[in-house]
Amino acid sequence: MDNDTGIDDSLGLLYLLASPEAEIVGIASTAGNVPADRVAANNLALLDLCRAPELEVALGAAQPLAIPLRTTEDTHGPQGVGYAELPVSARRLSDRSAAQMWVDLVREHPGEIVGLCTGPLTNLALALRIEPELPRLLQRLVIMGGAFNHPGNTTPTNEWNVHVDPEAAKEVFDAFAAAPADRRPIVCALDITETIEMRPKHLALLAERAGSEPVETVTETDPPEARSAASNPIVRYLTDAIRFYFDFHLLYEKVYLAHMHDPFAAAVALDPRLAVTKPATVDVELAGTITRATTVADWDGMWEREPNADIVVGTDPELFFERLVSRVGDLARATYPPQEGPQSR
Ligand code: RIB
Ligand code: CA
Questions:
Q1: Which of 113, 133, 235, 308 has the most C-beta neighbours closer than 10 Å?
Q2: Where are the domains of the chain?
Q3: Which CATH architecture has domain 2-197+257-324?
Q4: For the segment 174-188, what is each residue's pLDDT rounded down to a tens digit?
Q5: Ligand 2 centroid vs 260 CA: distance in angstroms?
Q6: Above 80 in pLDDT, residue 344?
Q7: Does pTM surpass 0.85?
Q8: Beta bridge partners of 141
Q9: What residues does ligand 1 touch, defined as CB less than 6 Å away?
Q10: Ligand 1, from 160, 188, 248, 312: best to mutate by most atoms within 8 Å of Cβ?
C-alpha cells in the first residue's frame, strides 16, 4: 500500500489489516495530505493501534517530482488524522526508500504483488524510473486518483492525488501503455469514489459490531473539541478521525458525510469483482493554464493509442459498506475484546 495517511487512507489501511486474505508486504509513505514524515509516523502509529505484526513502513520522497509539495491539513487535520491523536510509535522505519521498496518487492515476488496507491504517485513514478519492468512485475495496480466525467475536488478539473504530483501521474499512466490488458491499472476516480458516502450511521454500526460502548452517533452540532468516549480504542480513533472529515464535507459540500475514496480502492484491490470497469487511454494535462493536472480519458480510441487503464464505472456502495463495517468492526473487537471498564490503547 502506497498512501498519504490521511483520514481515509487510515481506514483503507485498517481495512487491509482487517482482511484475512490480505498480506501487507510493504507500506510506502507518500507526501500528500500531510508531509511524508508525518504520513510515515501515522502509518507506524496505526500499526500500534491495531497491535499489528512488524510490517515494513518506508519513507517516500519529501517533494513531488517537479513542483513544491502542497499539503491539505484543512481536510485531514493538523496531524493528518482529523481530531484524533495517536501516540508516537517506537517502531522503526525501513532503511530503504519507498521507491526502492517498491522495486525490491516486485523483483523478489514477480507477478504476485497487487500495488495499491491511495496518495500521489510520486514514489511509484520514482520506482518506475529505477525499474521500467515494474508494470509486468506487478500482478495488478489499483490507483485512487483522477476525475473523468466528474468535477475535481481540488480545482474544477483536478483530483487531489493527481494535483499534488501531476508529472508522477503522467509517468505512471504512460508506463502502463505497453502493459497487457490484465495488468492495466484499475483506476478508482472521483466519478466512483464520490458515490461512497460514509455517514454517522456507519460509524455507529461499526461500534456495535466491535462491542464498543457507548455506541455514539456523531452529529454536525458536535463542537470541534468533542472527543469520542468509545471503550474500544480503534472505534475511538475512527470516530475522532472521521468526524473531522464529516465537518470538512459539511463546510465545503454542505452535507454531513465523508467520501471514503481510499478504503474503496483497498476493497477493490482485494476483490476487483466489486468494480465494473471500462478500458480507456488516460493521460494527464501538464501544460494547461487552467487545466494543468487534469486527467483525461479517451474511451473510444480517438488518440489511436492503446488503453492503459481500466476505469471503475460502477459499484455497489452498500455492499462495500457491509464489508467495511463487518471487517473493521471485527478487527476492533478482536484487538480489544469487550470487557468491563475503560481500556488503554
Ligand atoms: O481526492 C481524494 C484523495 O486525496 C484521497 O486519497 C484522499 O486521501 C486524498 O489523498
Ligand atoms: Ca489518500
A1: 235
A2: 2-197+257-324
A3: Alpha-Beta Complex (3.90)
A4: 999 988 899 999 999
A5: 10
A6: no
A7: yes
A8: 115
A9: 4, 6, 8-9, 32-33, 118-119, 144, 153, 159-161, 261-262
A10: 160
